[in-house]
Write a structure and sequence with these properties.
- The protein is of the alpha/beta class and 365 residues long.
- It folds into 2 domains: 17-261, Type I PLP-dependent aspartate aminotransferase-like (Major domain) (Aspartate Aminotransferase, domain 2, 3-Layer(aba) Sandwich), CATH 3.40.640; 263-364, Aspartate Aminotransferase, domain 1 (Alpha-Beta Complex), CATH 3.90.1150.
- Helices cover 35% and strands 17% of the residues.
- It is built from 9 helices and 14 strands.
- The protein has a 7-stranded mixed sheet with strand order 2-10-9-8-5-3-4. A 3-stranded antiparallel sheet has the order 11-12-14, with helices on one face.
- α1 (16-24) crosses α6, α2 (44-61) crosses α6 and α7 (264-286) runs parallel beside α9 (347-364).
- The radius of gyration is 21 Å and the shape is globular.
């Protein structure tokens, strides 16, 4: 079997050593006589798995002790509702919109604000500019009395990223959707009130979502919040009020161990800088491809690009697939192409993509 270089935005490629270990342990995990999917979430075997996964994640991200780590279900999209249910508290929240996902989060919060007895404000949007950049701090009139400020720090579809250095002023607790770049670089967790991330980009299988929440934000849930969606209840029960996504947590734990073996997040950041620079430099210098995102706002994880002639898109994708380069079609809402180069994508995959793009341009330019 020959594995392809998979540039899918999610569910995305996983590190091959992780997949091989999961395959080896599928029928018998560490002598338990069964696989992780078959064991009780209350048993000592799975308890050891989830406890080790949390410990490794805390080490990787240097998560302070006054933050709780929750392994939940429903993906990041469920958090669009769960966050206001837990944090709005009849007050107001500020939302920054820099792409499809932050726009969806804002719309969901708008829908729930009235029933929750609160309000949400759109304090900044780049939609009129085609979501081609991040918002600047001097554009924002944030409410210091807000229950929280929500933003998406990496927009998967439009390829816009915000690092810690580009965060808005911390006048209220920052709530960040980090689904598509969590663990790709060091993060100062203490600057956030809550971080959430769907697993299917840089962590593991789809369905699992990780929430890292400061303890003082627990216990604020509206009475309308279902018990299973109450952060405090889930924290008090070690993420196991009900059956958690056990296999997703197990694979996430394998990924965390793999990341530690690579040298941690500082080492991964340098690798990701090198991969992104290789692809962006080629696109910018090609005269055949182009990326429309402002240079200072470009994502290292999700790199959308357009060909000189859209009529060549199908030929480009067919040739890429034949070359073992898959899942390069851009999101249907924006078209073009997109290369998602998460942690599991080796630099050899990016080199192979650049070589193919150079050859295609020479043939069709």
């Amino acid at each position: 079997m020959t594995r392809v270089f998979n540039f899918s935005a999610g569910p995305a490629a996983l590190p091959e050593p992780v997949l091989r270990q999961a395959a080896e342990e599928m029928l018998d995990w560490h002598g338990a006589g069964c696989g992780v999917m078959e064991m009780s979430h209350r048993g000592k075997e799975f308890t050891s798995i989830i406890e080790q996964a949390e410990a490794d994640l805390r080490e990787l991200m240097a998560i302070p002790q006054n933050y709780r780590v929750l392994f939940l279900q429903g993906g990041a999209t469920q958090q669009f509702a769960q966050i206001p249910m837990n944090l709005l508290g009849g007050g107001s929240a500020d939302y920054l919109v820099t792409g499809t996902w932050s726009k969806k989060a804002f719309k969901e919060a708008q829908r729930l604000a009235g029933p929750l007895g609160g309000a949400v404000r759109l304090v900044g949007s780049t939609e009129a500019e085609g979501f081609a950049r991040a918002l600047r701090a001097d554009e924002l009139a944030l409410d210091p009395q807000a229950a929280y400020v929500h933003l998406c720090t990496n927009e998967t579809i439009h390829g816009v990223e915000v690092g810690d250095e580009g965060l808005p002023p911390a006048v209220a607790p920052l709530v960040a959707d980090m689904s598509s770049h969590i663990l790709s670089r060091p993060t100062d967790v203490s600057r956030y009130g809550l971080i959430y991330a769907g697993a299917q980009k840089n962590i593991g299988p789809s369905g699992l979502v990780i929430v890292i929440v400061r303890e003082d934000l627990l216990g604020r849930a509206s009475l309308l919040t279902p018990t299973v969606m109450d952060y405090k209840v889930m924290a008090d029960n070690g993420s196991m009020l009900n059956t958690p996504p056990t296999y997703g947590i197990y694979v996430a734990g394998l990924v965390f161990r793999w990341l530690k073996a690579q040298g941690g997040l500082a080492a991964m950041e340098q690798c990701n800088i090198d991969k992104a620079a290789l692809l962006y430099d080629f696109i910018d210098g090609s005269g055949f491809y182009r990326n429309t995102v402002e240079v200072g706002s470009r994502s290292r994880m999700n790199i959308p690009f357009l060909l000189r002639d859209d009529a060549l898109n199908d030929a480009f994708l067919a040739g890429a697939k034949a070359a073992g380069l898959t899942q390069l079609k851009g999101h249907k809402s924006v078209g073009g192409m997109r290369a998602s180069i998460y942690n599991a994508m080796p630099i050899e995959g990016v080199r192979a993509l650049v070589d193919y793009m150079r050859e295609f341009a020479a043939q069709h330019g």
